[in-house]
């Protein structure tokens, strides 16, 4: 419940008037409603780490520190819904502090804010949230990549046309296409991993921007919160959110990846292509046209990618005109969509996993198209170079003429014969090539084309090798992410244990 007061300022004797209702209703109330519960546990952890450090440094005496620790633990147990939120108190921190002071008194509760600012608290919350979001994102990327790699193995022999410019290009396999998608998603994972070290630094103790004259121990609060180190420069610590923008940029690229994957499926599932089918469980229909089976999951993925691109563009547009310090536009408005981007990405990756798991290639159609649509033409040109001592450019012209004749006569690729090749050769280089019918037929066979491309190409053994290497990388990334998650979990357990021990001192004092 969010209440409202009509008295003088709830947070400052400097301000003699209550906050305007428009400010409360448009700015503070929506922020509290959206962010207070999500940030509650992070704020509790920060408060616990800070009071433990203050006590250790002798900046808050045992009785007060113990009472604060006990109150923090009780508040965590009661949860965020136990706190009545008042937009006249501006934000999450002042509402939290007011509830704490109600429990332990102003003299004791007010000591918790020694040697810190909302600025470094907010920066620390952002980093703690980002850390958890990156864990969840990498976990879900591992899931979908594992599914893609399994399907790549399953379909590594399924021949299909490869496309460039959405035109038949060269024969590939569906498994090869899937392994390529897995590679791209692997790089998206690496970009999130790369952000982790720069993000995983504690800004707590930076104060408003210039640090503090109190003899605090920033490495101690970093340790208690599971950070391996601190953000050194106190101004940079509160001014910068580039660690969030880096993650948002990585998510924008990830969204582009999943949207392009969805776009290929979107084309292949059409009646004109008929290369892929999906079960009815992932399809929609029409309210008027009874024959319709609409690819709603693919449209969701493509559309959601556009939303993420817009969110990142918004963040950059807001950040660019802000001061290099703590300001509301720099550190609140610019990153307002960060959590939404992370959560939407996890959802989209779950949908992508469903798409890949349920997509079924129409193997007969794929092979027939590859045989008929001239996508093996390059193999005929390569064979001419190898077996007839002709330059590739001349071979290219010969095969181009053969394809043109076939199209003019309404012939498919598998109907090209030796006579057509020799006529084109005589026109181009003045002599027939002398290739046998078996050779021409073999080099126009898409399956033979696929098997010949063994160096990073669609040959089944090549795909198997790439899948194996990608699986090794996936396992390594999964293991590292699990280790990082466990490190933060153990740090939080240790923090709570130390807070419980500090809280118990008050009960032990006669």
Q: Topology, please?
A:
Layout: H1 21-56, H2 62-78, H3 92-104, H4 106-109, H5 118-154, E1 159-164, E2 167-173, H6 174-199, H7 218-224, H8 234-239, H9 242-268, E3 276-277, H10 296-319, H11 328-333, H12 338-358, E4 360-361, H13 363-372, H14 377-388, H15 392-408, H16 418-429, H17 437-443, H18 446-452, H19 460-508
Antiparallel strand pairs: 1-2, 3-4
Helix pairs in contact: 1-2, 1-5, 1-7, 1-19, 2-19, 5-6, 5-12, 5-19, 6-9, 6-19, 9-10, 9-12, 10-12, 14-15, 15-16
Let me know the average pLDDT: 94
Q: In CATH, what is the class of the largest domain?
A: Mainly Alpha
Strand order of the largest sheet: 1-2
Main pleated-sheet profile: 2 strands, antiparallel
By DSSP, the count of extended strands is: 4
**CATH fold topology of the largest domain:** Fumarase C, Chain A, domain 2
Instruction: Quote the beta fraction.
Output: under 5%
EC number: 4.3.2.1
Domain Argininosuccinate lyase C-terminal: 374-450
Family: Belongs to the lyase 1 family. Argininosuccinate lyase subfamily.
Domain Fumarate lyase N-terminal: 55-310
């Amino acid at each position: 419940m969010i209440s409202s007061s009509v008295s003088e300022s709830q947070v400052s004797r400097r301000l003699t008037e209550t906050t305007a209702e428009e400010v409360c209703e448009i700015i503070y109330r929506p922020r509290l409603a959206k962010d207070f519960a999500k940030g509650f546990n992070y704020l509790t952890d920060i408060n616990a780490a800070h009071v433990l450090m203050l006590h250790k440094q002798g900046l808050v005496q045992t009785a007060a520190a113990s009472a604060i620790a006990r109150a923090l633990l009780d508040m965590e147990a009661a949860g965020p819904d136990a706190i009545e939120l008042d937009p006249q108190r501006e934000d999450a921190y002042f509402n939290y502090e007011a509830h704490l002071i109600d429990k332990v008194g102003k003299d004791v509760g007010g000591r918790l804010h020694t040697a810190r600012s909302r600025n470094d608290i907010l920066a620390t919350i952002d980093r703690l949230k980002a850390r958890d979001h990156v864990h969840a994102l990498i976990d879900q990327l591992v899931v979908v990549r594992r599914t893609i790699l399994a399907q790549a193995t399953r379909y590594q022999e399924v021949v299909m046309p490869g496309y460039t410019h959405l035109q038949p290009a060269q024969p590939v396999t569906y498994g090869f296409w899937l392994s390529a998608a897995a590679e791209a998603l692997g790089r998206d994972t690496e970009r999130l991993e790369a952000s982790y070290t720069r993000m995983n630094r504690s800004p707590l103790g930076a104060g408003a921007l210039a640090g503090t004259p109190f003899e605090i121990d920033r490495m101690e609060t970093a340790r208690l919160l599971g950070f391996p180190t601190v953000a050194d420069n106190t101004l940079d610590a509160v001014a910068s959110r580039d660690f969030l923008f880096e993650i948002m940029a990585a998510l924008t690229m990830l969204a582009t990846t999943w949207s392009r994957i969805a776009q290929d499926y979107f084309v292949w599932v059409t009646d004109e292509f008929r290369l892929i089918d999906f079960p009815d469980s992932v399809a929609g229909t029409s309210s008027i046209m009874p024959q319709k089976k609409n690819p709603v999951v693919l449209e969701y993925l493509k559309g959601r990618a556009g939303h993420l691109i817009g969110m990142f563009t918004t963040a950059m547009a807001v950040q660019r005109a802000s001061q290099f310090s703590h300001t509301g536009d720099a550190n609140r408005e610019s990153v307002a969509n960060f959590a939404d981007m992370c959560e939407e990405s996890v959802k989209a990756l779950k949908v992508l996993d469903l798409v890949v798991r349920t997509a079924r290639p129409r193997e007969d159609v794929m092979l027939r198209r590859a045989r008929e649509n001239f996508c093996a033409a390059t193999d005929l040109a390569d064979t001419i170079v190898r077996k007839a001592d002709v330059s590739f450019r001349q071979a290219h012209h010969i095969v181009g003429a053969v394809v043109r004749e076939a199209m003019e006569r309404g012939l498919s690729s598998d109907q090209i014969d030796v006579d057509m090749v020799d006529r084109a050769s005589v026109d181009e280089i003045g002599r027939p090539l002398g290739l046998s019918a078996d050779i021409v037929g073999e080099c126009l066979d898409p399956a033979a084309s696929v098997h010949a491309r063994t160096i990073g190409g669609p040959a089944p053994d090549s795909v198997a090798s790439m899948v194996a290497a990608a699986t090794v990388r996936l396992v390594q990334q999964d293991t590292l992410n699990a280790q990082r998650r466990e490190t933060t979990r153990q740090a939080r357990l240790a923090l709570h244990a130390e807070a419980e021990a500090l809280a118990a001192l008050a009960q032990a004092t006669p």
